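Whiteboard transcription, Tuesday session. T.W. wrote the structure tokens on the left side:
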């Protein structure tokens, strides 16, 4: 007989285990420290107990585009930093830094156990849910900083996503209001909020500026990129094969790029779609870790509420079509706020909406989206609202981190 433990119970049991193990760890540390003092080995004890100056935690290699510019700037300034990743093939592990020390810390429970007992002055991460599930705040890390991995609403994280961070680095003024209202509604202390920009958008634009325009396809067809988010409100979950049927009925070239998370949480659904709609001259499935090239060679994007819409609109300056998937706010932080999401206010300005009513006319919707000049001004407006300090994000992020390290007495430590 196989014993089944649901995720909620599993998380609770893991929390209890961590608490027990944590108490034992701190007891042993205390005994070790006292023993060291009694035997005169004070120097070694101090070295063993010393906290790391700055830690960056990445739960997946796909966030290297956020962290690489930050690591490059920390390296340039000579700031000792410890980069810990759950991906054994994270690009950070191969980059020849002197001051950035990259390490694979395992996956899942193994990684979180390491983080839960870590000693550091400060930790930076894109991962939400700190102190909610398996990843707990370490008693020996006084300051946790979150940096989003996409522009847009910071209340679209799963419930309590940012509640237990001490600071959040933002890219637009409207995000400050969202977090302050969320804090008030939950009776939380105010976090430090700093507008710094978006590191990976800066890098994408810089990269794009070095490349020539993409030549037209040999067959003369425009390329449509379908890039949904994951979960019950994502395009593929809502529309299934119907949207693929409609798009393949046109003469556009189609690229389907599911969200990376879909390959783990929606594996059965995706495998069924990929079996029913195999690759061919008109259709390709894309799983590149770096989405730059697929965005660059696409003429128009169809998505739902994924942050990729802003990458495409703001960096590549191309039109989008956003799908009406009746977004369910229930699992997200925005459920607590009686207001419209910024994302859903700006999308109608950036492109046409796709719904069940006009799915049969998808060719017309795409053609008008490609030709309509009205969306250009809206892209400029959205860019100003959600991507402040363009080109300066890495500098501003590191300025903030160094400022906080200096306050803790650890700035510039080697």
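and on the right, the sequence the group agreed on:
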């Amino acid at each position: 007989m196989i014993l089944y433990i649901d995720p909620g119970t599993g998380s609770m049991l893991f929390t209890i285990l961590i608490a027990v193990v944590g108490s034992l760890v701190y007891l042993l540390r205390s005994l070790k420290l006292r023993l060291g003092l009694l035997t005169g080995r004070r120097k070694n004890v101090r070295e063993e107990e010393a906290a790391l100056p700055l830690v960056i935690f990445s739960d997946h290699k796909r966030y290297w585009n956020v962290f690489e510019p930050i690591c490059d700037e920390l390296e340039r300034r000579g700031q000792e930093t410890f980069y810990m990743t759950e991906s054994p093939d994270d690009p950070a592990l191969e980059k020849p830094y002197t001051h950035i020390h990259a390490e694979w810390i395992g996956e899942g429970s193994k990684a979180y156990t390491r983080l839960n007992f870590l000693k550091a002055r400060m930790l930076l991460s894109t991962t939400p849910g700190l102190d909610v599930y398996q990843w707990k705040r370490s008693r020996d890390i006084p300051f946790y900083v979150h940096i989003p991995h996409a522009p847009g609403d910071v209340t679209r994280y799963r419930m309590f996503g940012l509640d237990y961070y001490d600071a959040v680095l933002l890219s637009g003024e409207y995000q400050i209001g969202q977090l302050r209202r969320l804090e008030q509604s939950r009776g939380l202390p105010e976090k430090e909020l700093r507008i710094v920009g978006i590191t990976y958008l800066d890098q994408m634009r810089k990269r794009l500026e070095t490349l020539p325009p993409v030549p037209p396809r040999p067959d003369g067809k425009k390329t449509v990129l379908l890039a949904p988010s994951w979960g019950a409100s994502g395009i593929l979950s809502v529309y299934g094969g119907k949207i693929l049927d409609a798009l393949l009925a046109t003469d556009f070239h189609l690229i389907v790029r599911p969200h990376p998370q879909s390959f783990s949480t929606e594996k059965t659904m995706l495998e069924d779609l990929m079996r029913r709609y195999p690759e061919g001259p008109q259709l390709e499935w894309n799983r590149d870790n770096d989405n730059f090239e697929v965005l660059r060679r696409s003429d128009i994007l169809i998505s739902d509420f994924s942050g990729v819409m802003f990458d495409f609109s703001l960096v590549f300056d191309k039109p989008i079509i956003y799908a009406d998937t009746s977004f369910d706010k229930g699992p997200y932080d925005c459920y607590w706020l009686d207001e419209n999401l910024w994302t859903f206010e700006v999308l109608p300005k950036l492109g046409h909406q796709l719904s069940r009513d006009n799915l049969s006319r998808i060719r017309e919707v795409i053609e008008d989206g490609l030709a309509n000049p009205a969306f250009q001004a809206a892209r400029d407006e959205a860019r100003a609202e959600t991507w402040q300090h363009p080109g300066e994000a890495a500098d501003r992020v590191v300025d903030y981190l160094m400022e906080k390290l200096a306050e803790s007495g650890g700035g510039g430590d080697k």
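Someone added at the bottom: Confidence is low (pLDDT under 50) at residues 1-12, 18-48.
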